């Protein structure tokens, strides 16, 4: 019994640990987690430049408000092409669902747009939001009350940021005459769209399906379907809207398997591109349950559109596979024609049952989100798979994903956490973690320490940014630590506040120093004692591997230990790991140092050829990430 119980306990813990393993964690942002990606590059050299814009969610409907502590993990996130986090907007949006998160052009500048979902109790009806490159809210656009809540499918900013088209849903009670049941009534949820003024939120145009799309077009209900109360039959399920220069609207309705062009002049349907037999076009393809229909080009009688097709087709009949399509429509001929220009097949040959999108990139590559599990792919113009990635977790989904270049300049300072470790006064090291949520082009960080609060900062080293969070290790007990984030071109982009270094419970950690508990060192004093060379002359991180035999191998081992424990912290996360790390580190260090009688030479000088002798090089962490 006891053993069984223990096993069960262990198993449960393993499960709990495991289920946490799909999220990154950070020393500097302990409240934030971020979903991890698995990546697979087939042709790294051919993918287009840019960041991934994704917004993971756990449940498509808003979650019930909870008073339980929850780490920030859903909402808008920017990743680089290595799956490293660049920005988490989860804290900014308080873990609420966000959709259609992407960059847009507004007054010829790059902005971010997204949909903040309505909340569960209905106190907030959702917004289309525009953020500037500082992640500050530039516009928060509500939908006029009589048009319902702000729908999560589409927030499509047009015309260099003048207006946006959005989808909407409204309900009405109708009689079922169209289905030959004039005596019966049902609630019907119809699909519509609105064009909104970005600056005033005024409704510039509104259209709904009720007058234009008869009930019989739905493939989701039949003449014998049961009547429903509000909100009722979702008979068209509108899921995308776009507009061309002629002022006409392209809409996609998933439950009619049809893409429509709606006249901006009269609101009537100009043509139907049907997936299954109701098409106004002679076409060489079928589709169904499509998403994200967008104009690629549109002028005169020639239109090129892209969309995501859930289903299989006649060309690949044996493969029930979703694909993104680019099709060309010619409306000047009789009959009008539609033909496939490009097809991009889901690399795992699977089916995207719900949601997803496709985005034609500037270099004509195609970027597709297959939705479930955050699955994304990039294709060459010929349809060759260049890259695919998905969340390591199947707990999270993502409706649409986009790729684009972006320069993010947060207004908050870089975050920093410094801690000191050691078993006696000869082997103290200060470990600094730094991150700067949303900063896109930091090349490296410069670290500073002070002898006391009011002393001048002394440069103690620099290290290239290698991940969302970057670690730096300085020899000795450094305090009043701060960091500068530096751009490639050398200019300082931002400076952190001055942080005190966290100290362990020295006695509990087994500190063996002879002269009382450790005290912060004077960084300038130390470096001048070592020969007076300016402490500003620190080394180049790329020279890490050039450490020669004169550098203590033991120092490197210690740094490696720290780095690998750091990796552990990142993967298992949480307070527990930190405590574990502290305990394990002091334990390991104490016994290791005792056994080996190891001594660190503080600020050991490493001679390099072209450079002046440089301090502290051996103290930079190995880049194990
Ligand atoms: C955007 O750029 C175009 C082309 O350079 C220019 O004609 C237009 O006036 C600009 N618009 C705004 C709002 O700055
Ligand atoms: C920091 O590192 C860069 C290169 O990585 C190097 O050029 C520079 O001299 C270092 N120190 C300072 C103070 O910028
Ligand atoms: C998984 C899924 O929804 N598949 C649908 C894709 O479209 C075809 C054709 O309409 C449907 O038959 C499938 O059910």
Topology:
Elements (H helix, E strand, L loop, with lengths): L1 H19 L2 E3 L7 E3 L1 E5 L9 E4 L22 E3 L5 E4 L9 E9 L2 E8 L10 E5 L5 E5 L13 E4 L4 E14 L4 E17 L5 E6 H4 L20 E2 L3 E6 L5 E5 L4 E5 L6 E6 L6 E3 L7 E9 L2 E8 L13 E8 L5 E10 L11 E4 L5 E4 L6 E4 L5 E7 L10 E3 L10 E7 L7 E7 L6 E9 L7 E7 L4 E7 L3 E9 L4 E4 L27 H7 L23 H20 L1 H23 L8 E2 L7 E2 L10
The site of one 2-acetamido-2-deoxy-beta-D-glucopyranose (NAG) has 3 residues, from loops.
Architecture overview:
There is one protein chain. This protein is mainly β. It has a domain at 415-605: Immunoglobulin-like (Sandwich), CATH 2.60.40. Helix content is 12%, strand content 36%. The protein has 5 helices and 38 strands. It has a 5-stranded antiparallel β-sheet with strand order 3-28-27-26-25, with no helix packed on it. Strands 11, 12, 13, 14 and 15 form a 5-stranded mixed β-sheet that branches. Strands 20-24-23-22-21 form a 5-stranded mixed β-sheet, with no helix packed on it. β26 (366-369) and β27 (376-379) form a beta hairpin. α4 (553-572) packs antiparallel against α5 (574-596). The longest helix is centred in the C-terminal third of the chain and has 23 residues, at 574-596. The protein is elongated and about 95 Å long. One 2-acetamido-2-deoxy-beta-D-glucopyranose binds at residues 444, 446, 459, 462, 464, 536, 538, 540-541. Residues 444, 446, 459, 462, 464, 536, 538, 540-541 line the site of one 2-acetamido-2-deoxy-beta-D-glucopyranose (NAG). It comes from Penicillium frequentans. The chain crosses the membrane at residues 572-595. This is ASST-domain-containing protein.
């Amino acid at each position: 019994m006891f053993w069984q119980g223990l096993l069960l306990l262990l198993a449960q813990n393993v499960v709990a640990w495991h289920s946490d393993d799909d999220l990154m964690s950070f020393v500097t942002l302990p409240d934030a987690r971020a979903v991890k990606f698995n990546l697979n590059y087939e042709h790294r050299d051919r993918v287009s430049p840019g960041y991934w814009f994704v917004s993971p969610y756990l449940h498509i409907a808003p979650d019930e408000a909870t008073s339980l502590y929850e780490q920030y993990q859903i909402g808008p996130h920017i990743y680089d092409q290595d799956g490293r986090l660049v920005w988490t907007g989860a804290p900014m949006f308080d873990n609420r669902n966000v959709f259609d998160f992407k960059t847009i052009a507004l007054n010829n500048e790059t902005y971010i747009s997204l949909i903040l979902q309505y909340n569960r109790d209905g106190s907030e009806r959702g917004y289309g939001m525009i953020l500037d490159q500082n992640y500050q809210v530039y516009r928060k656009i509500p939908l006029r009350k009589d048009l319902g809540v702000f729908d999560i499918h589409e927030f499509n900013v047009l015309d260099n940021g003048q207006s946006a088209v959005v989808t909407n849903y409204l309900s009405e009670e109708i009689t079922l005459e169209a289905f030959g049941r004039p005596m019966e009534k049902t609630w019907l949820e119809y699909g519509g769209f609105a064009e909104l003024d970005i600056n005033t939120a005024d409704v510039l145009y509104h259209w709904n399906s009720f007058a234009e799309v008869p009930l019989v077009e739905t493939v989701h209900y039949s003449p014998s379907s049961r009547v429903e109360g509000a909100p009722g039959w979702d008979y068209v399920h509108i899921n995308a809207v776009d507009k061309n220069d002629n002022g006409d609207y392209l809409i996609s309705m998933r439950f009619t398997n049809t893409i429509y062009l709606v006249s901006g002049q009269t609101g009537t349907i100009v043509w139907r591109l049907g997936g299954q037999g109701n098409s106004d076009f002679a076409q060489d393809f079928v589709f169904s349950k499509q998403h994200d229909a967008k104009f690629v080009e549109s002028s005169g009688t020639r239109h090129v559109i892209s969309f995501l097709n859930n289903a299989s087709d006649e060309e690949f009949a044996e493969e029930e596979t979703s694909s993104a399509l680019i099709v060309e429509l010619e409306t000047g001929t009789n009959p009008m024609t539609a033909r496939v220009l490009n097809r991009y097949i889901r690399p795992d040959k699977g089916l995207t049952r719900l949601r997803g999108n496709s985005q034609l990139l500037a270099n004509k590559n195609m970027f597709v989100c297959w939705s479930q599990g955050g699955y994304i792919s990039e294709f060459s113009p010929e349809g060759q798979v260049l890259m695919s990635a998905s969340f390591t977790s199947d707990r999270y989904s993502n409706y649409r994903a986009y790729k684009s270049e972006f320069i993010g300049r947060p207004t908050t300072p870089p975050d920093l956490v410094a801690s000191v470790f050691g078993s006696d006064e000869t082997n103290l090291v200060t470990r600094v973690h730094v991150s700067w949520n949303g900063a896109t082009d930091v090349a490296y960080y410069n670290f500073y320490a002070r002898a006391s609060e009011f002393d001048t900062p002394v440069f103690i080293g620099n290290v290239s940014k290698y991940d969302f969070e970057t670690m730096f290790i300085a020899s000795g007990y450094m305090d009043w630590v701060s960091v500068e984030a530096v751009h490639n071109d050398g200019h300082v982009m931002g400076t952190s506040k001055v942080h005190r270094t966290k100290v362990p419970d020295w006695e509990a950690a087994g500190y063996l120093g002879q002269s009382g508990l450790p005290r912060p060192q004077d960084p300038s004093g130390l470096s001048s004692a070592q020969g007076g060379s300016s402490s500003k002359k620190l080394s180049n991180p790329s020279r890490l591997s050039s450490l020669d035999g004169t550098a203590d191998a033991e120092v490197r081992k210690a740094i490696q230990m720290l780095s690998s424990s750091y990796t552990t912290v990142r993967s298992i996360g949480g307070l527990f790991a930190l405590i574990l790390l502290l305990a394990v580190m002091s334990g390991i260090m104490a016994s290791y140092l005792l056994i080996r009688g190891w001594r660190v030479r503080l600020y050991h000088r490493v001679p390099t050829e072209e450079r002046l002798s440089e301090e502290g090089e051996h103290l930079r962490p190995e880049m194990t990430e």
